[in-house]
Amino acid sequence: MTATADTMPVTDLKQAATALIARKRLVAFAAPAVILAYFVYLFFAFDIPGLVDRARMDNAAILVADSYSYKTHVTRDNRSGGLVFAIEGENKGTYPEGLAPEFVTRTGEEAVSIALKAGESAEIDGATLRYTRPDYGTVTVTVDGRDILLDTPDGQVPDWISASSSRVNITGAGGRAAVTRARTEVFRYSLGWELFWFTLDSPFYGKGLGELAGLALSGERVVPEKSNVAAMVHDFWNNPMWRHKDVIWAIFETVLMAFLGTMGAALVALPLAFLAARNFTRLMSIRFAVRRFFDFVRGVDGLIWTIILSRAFGPGPMTGALAILITDTGSFGKMFSEALENVDDKQIEGVASTGAKPMQRYRFGVIPQVTPVFLSQILYYLESNTRSATVIGAITGGGIGLLLTQAIITQKDWEEVSYYIVLVILMVIAMDWFSGWLRGRLIGRNEAH
Amino acid sequence: MADTTTGQSPGAVRTSEIQDAYMAMTRTKRMYGGIMLVIFIALMVSGFMLADSRNAGGFWDGILNVFNFPGEVVKEASEKLTLLPALMVKFFPSLIETINIAAASTLVGGLIAIVLSLLSTRGLARYPRLIGLFRRMMDIMRAVPEIVIALVLIFVLGGGPVPAMIAIAFHTAGALGKLFSEVNENASLKPLEGLESTGATWAQRMMLGVVPQVAPNWLSYALLRFEINIRASAILGFVGSGGIGYDLKNAFSWGQGRYDEVAAIFILLFLTIVFFDQLSSHYRNKLVGKV
Q1: Domain locations in chain A as residue ranges
Q2: What share of residues in chain A are helix, strand, coil (percent, to 5)?
């Protein structure tokens, strides 16, 4: 302070300090103000008020409820008769003849009584549905030719029933029912992911863990051709509802895309990086050309590469791998050449002083210096590309990204969507852990960060 | 060299022992290196063959057709060259939307990341016992690919920029949070002690003691993230939320006859990415100095 005061008039110093503080104060207020103004602009640019109208909260409710529960459909065909019990109403989840969920009791040829939750119950008796709520009474809906007749205890239609001449919907606290001319349906929600392990046609369906372990150990074969363990694995692996085989393959394809893309990009970028580094390529024109090539490849972006490649190669993991390969060649080339420009010349001179030829100078003077940098960048990209591969898979049609988009587009299998999401997150975390572990093993833990 | 080993002095014997041990070590190292190389090549080759067999079109057929589609686009675009500037003007608003999505998500994600990073840095954390919890939270946020959240939110909120913004912001918060907390670890604690002695609250200590120290590095990471997010927001547009990606998808699925639009969007996207790439690397160098 005193030193500067000696060389500079005190008034100037004070002025400078005041100006500095004033500027800092201005920035301190201006920066939040600008950000706030930007958010106000976005509020209108993104049409947030309109979004509130467009948001489908009922969709959100379905999504959340469906992700941890499943519904069983009890359906009576009102045209040709016959009762069907099916999980999620799917063909693959239909109970075989003579089998029924435990909350359904058969009371006649075309009649069942269904125990719902919250003390409610429903009865289907031919073309008649009787839905009973403990605090209300019994609602009777009858399909009579072309008419649907609704009968409530007090003659009024409560707000949890929506009725028209062609459709009656009953939304109770423990179940739902829908009656149309074509069919009478009762839905019962239950917790969990039903049929996750075995589907209804498997002999192992509905058995507890202890029972399964007992079967696995016993010599008595449930399926004559196979041992019990093999039969269990087979039934689980080929589960038609959850398609474990396809899902695992899809995850594997995604990882494969990331691996092939990242490693391929590194292999292509390595020699090019030498051409782009100032201290290895004296020729300005080559350096310039290679650098512009890197910039171009990076600038075109994964999205455009993916589109172009999917035209040539069709959907699948190869397309995704090549898209990652091309995009990352640019990124790796840029980073590698920067690392090469920063190598310490002393080591190379030391190697050269022993009479080493150029190749040996590279091998012993340069490679040991840059390997840790390159490896850590490659491994970092391996993890990040696992995520990119999911996205690219959704665009080109390969891997878990494809399954995820398909499941979301059908808008009903939300339990499968949540299953895939969990798997994707686990996959990325596993790759993150794996690349960290490999980095630790290859270049030592101290340098890993 | 050779005559030193034939000498009988004890020093020479030691030298030859050391030499032998060194050569043995080099041999094992080389062997491990060779094994690693063989495994790596085997993985690459088998992976390539597997990917090739599971792809709809084979690699060798495809590689010959790689230039067909770009060729068609260039041909059609060059025929309608005069229309291109008008098309670029037409798609400019969507481009602005894509950039807005990226900017908004970087801002929102960055602000959340600041809070998360301060809460998960040793020495700074408000609740030291919860450091692990906040770190795991960031790990999970980082692991979720943007597309997962975007697709689910499109179902609930309908199309448009907001689902993409939330999805990218969520991922950004996790990714930046980790980088920010690494920066925070290098911050000096002395200003904090000084502030604490005046009775400053936690928020005041962070605002006045930590933020001035780390702001340049934070900004530099946020700029890098902004550049990444522009790419991400273009991709998310392609799967259904707004912006230039959505226009690209429409023009692309229309096919021949609209390739001039595809070309215009390609050019716009390319210029934007290169522009922000240069801009962010320029300011990053200014902020933290050339590495």
Answers
A1: 2-45, 70-191, 195-237, 244-443
A2: 60, 15, 25
